[in-house]
Amino acid sequence: MEKPRQTYQGGLCEPPIYEGSRIKHAWRRDFPHLEVKGVRPTVVYIHGNGNKARKETLKSEWDMALFGTDMGAHSIMAYWAALRYPEPLPDAAFDEIEHVEAIGPEGQEGVEPTGIDPTELLAETLAEVDGARTRAPAEVVEAAEGPGDVADESAGLDAWLLRMAYTAEAVVAGEESAGLEVLPLPRAARIATFRALLKITFKDVYAYFFGGFGEPMRAVLREALTAAPDPVVVISHSLGTIIAYDVLREAAFTAREIPLFVTAGSPLGVTEVQDLVVHDLEVPAGVAAWRNIADSRDLVALDPTLRPEYAPKERCADFLVVNDSANHHGIREYLSSRPVQESVRGLFA
Question: Which of 163, 186, 210 is the last residue of a domain?
Answer without folding.
Answer: 210
